[in-house]
Specification:
The complex is a heterodimer. Chain A is an alpha/beta fold. Chain A is built from eight helices and 14 strands. The chains are: A alpha/beta, B mainly alpha.
Chain lengths: ~290, ~250
């Protein structure tokens, strides 16, 4: 087990932010940490890093996390949401400094990381880097010492689509050698690269499990062989799509009435498929429970 | 800690801060003998021969007296302004958490920064001494100046104490004004104590009777203020480490 968060609570003054959080992360898991702004994602990450005091127990690679100075950080790579660097260095100089801080990192590893993030042979100083380049450098420094756990706080939040794509590819590559906990608001990203999702809402973990979307029993996608007027179905709850309709049935009777109407208007069905719940709907459902 | 000292060093040299720094201290070094030399001429021009002759002949002591006026004031204030946000800037900009998350010891950050500031202050101070010395021996007989090494070392330590106090204030309050403010308060307290209480332990007494000391007219005990300064510096380092070790980030 790489990370164990056991009964962790955190309050800022009288305001409780996290209550009795329990979670574990195994080797090479990649976990999407989802929750609204202010849900406590960053706070929990900072507790894991020993940056904030907390109640409860956290261990990283069997090393107990202490507030302040903590030896457990030797096992962690951290990418803050807006990483800031010593801008007077080049990427290589910066990673060399990280190498010295971490200790057991070879020169080959520095070059490997620069290559991984596409910043090899860049002579310019970091102050001239774009946001995307800084984010890539952020991942390189976080992975440099081969951490057992990589913590990324919204790694793609302020990037353009191309930048996001690059970061996701790097994270997918990184999961071969480390467990990753990354927070995000972009659910499609969570679905694409993680195999487990944790939803934090209202101070608690509301969901922790693999990303599975339910197949709906009452929401169907309908396509006809020929054009059919919506007028004939106006008492049903229908959303028109490009090629067909999405129909939301209130109950089984409602669904049978819809089928009956198809027969009445002499329409021929091309497709009638139960719809998968979207990830957004899933998160909404979980957080509204 | 070595890596962080190197970073502090690089920060001085790769950002051209060193250039401003060296220009200031070289200028101060030139200014001391120059001011000593030019002051009687200015007085003579403004007030006439009689008034000017009352000042007597300018000697190497006058040049060093200018040093003790200028370097602890202009030099130290400039230096404090330059380093007064060295901790708060890193925390506010977020450059430090990445390294703390790698297991960098918090006390290493404090010690590395203080060591880098000490080195820079030492270099600047030595440059100023060197330039003042060369310029002084060019014009005057240096052999009349007595107790100079101890007097210089005293003011060096005094300035170092205020660098440490400013750093402590900046670490605790996380603001530039906090660092400078704490230094200001301590300075006022020391001046007050020096004015109203005759204590040989007060670091501010290192500024007392410099003229007489340089002319070797009086005996002066340096060890007590030195010990006070060293004790206060140790306290500053200890408090800064204790505070930073338990600081939420």
């Amino acid at each position: 087990m790489i990370l164990k968060v056991d009964d962790v609570s955190k309050a800022f003054g009288k305001k409780s932010v996290l209550e009795n959080i329990r979670l574990t992360i195994e080797e090479r898991e990649i976990i999407a940490f989802v929750g609204a702004n202010g849900a406590g994602k960053t706070t929990l990450m900072k507790c894991i890093l020993g940056f904030l005091p907390f109640k409860g127990n956290i261990t990283v690679a069997d090393e107990k996390v202490q507030f302040g100075e903590t030896a457990s950080n030797a096992h962690i790579g951290y990418l803050p949401d807006v990483p800031q660097f010593y801008a007077f260095y080049t990427a290589k100089q910066y990673l060399k400094m990280c190498q010295k801080v971490s200790g057991n990192v070879t020169d080959e590893r520095v070059d490997e990381m620069l290559k991984l993030v596409g910043l090899e042979n860049r002579p310019e100083k970091i102050q001239q880097y774009s946001r995307g380049m800084k984010q890539r450098l952020g991942i390189a420094q976080a992975l440099l010492h081969k951490p057992k756990l990589l913590i990324c706080d919204e790694p793609t939040s302020a990037l353009d689509p191309e930048g996001r794509e690059q970061i996701l590819k790097i994270l997918q590559e990184a999961k071969k050698e480390t467990a990753i906990l990354f927070s995000t608001h972009i659910l499609s990203e969570a679905e694409r690269i993680s195999n487990r999702m944790i939803i934090l809402h209202d101070r608690e973990i509301k969901f922790d499990g693999p990303l599975k979307r339910k197949v709906s029993n009452d929401r169907f996608y309908v396509e006809f062989m020929s054009e059919v007027s919506l007028e004939n179905f106006k008492e049903f709850q229908i959303e028109q799509e490009k090629e067909g309709w999405t129909v939301q049935f209130s109950d089984e009777m409602n669904k049978q009435a819809f089928m009956q109407r198809i027969i009445e208007v002499d329409a021929s069905l091309k497709k009638f498929m139960p719809q998968e719940e979207t990830l957004e709907q899933f998160v909404k459902e979980v957080t509204n429970r | 800690m070595k890596s962080f000292i190197k970073k502090e060093w690089d920060q001085y040299f790769l950002t051209n801060r060193w250039l401003i720094f060296f220009v200031i201290f070289i200028a101060l070094g030139i200014m001391n003998p120059f001011t000593a030399k030019i002051t009687p001429v200015l007085i003579e021009n403004m007030m006439g021969d009689e008034f000017s002759s009352a000042f007597g002949e300018v000697t190497a002591v006058d040049s060093w007296l200018q040093f003790f006026k200028n370097v602890p004031q202009l030099g130290l204030i400039g230096f404090l302004l330059m380093m007064a946000n060295s901790m708060s800037k890193e925390l506010q900009e977020g450059t430090l958490p990445i390294f703390l998350a790698k297991g960098l010891k918090r006390k290493s950050v404090i010690l590395a920064k203080l060591l880098a500031h000490t080195m820079m202050w030492t270099i600047g101070y030595l440059i100023s001494i060197g330039v003042t010395y060369l310029y002084t021996i060019y014009y005057w007989d240096q052999s009349i100046v007595q107790q100079l090494p101890l007097a210089l070392f005293g003011i060096y330590l005094f300035a170092l104490l205020f660098i440490f106090i400013t750093f402590l204030g900046n670490t605790i309050t996380n603001s530039t004004m906090g660092g400078l403010g704490l230094s200001g308060i301590v300075l006022i307290v020391l001046i007050f104590l020096n004015t109203f209480f005759d204590s040989k332990w007060n670091p501010f007494m290192l500024f007392n009777e410099i003229n007489e000391r340089l002319l070797n007219d009086i005996a002066f005990s340096y060890s007590e203020p030195f010990l006070t300064i060293i004790a206060l510096m140790i306290l500053c380092v200890t408090f800064a480490i204790l505070h930073f070790n338990k600081r939420a980030i």
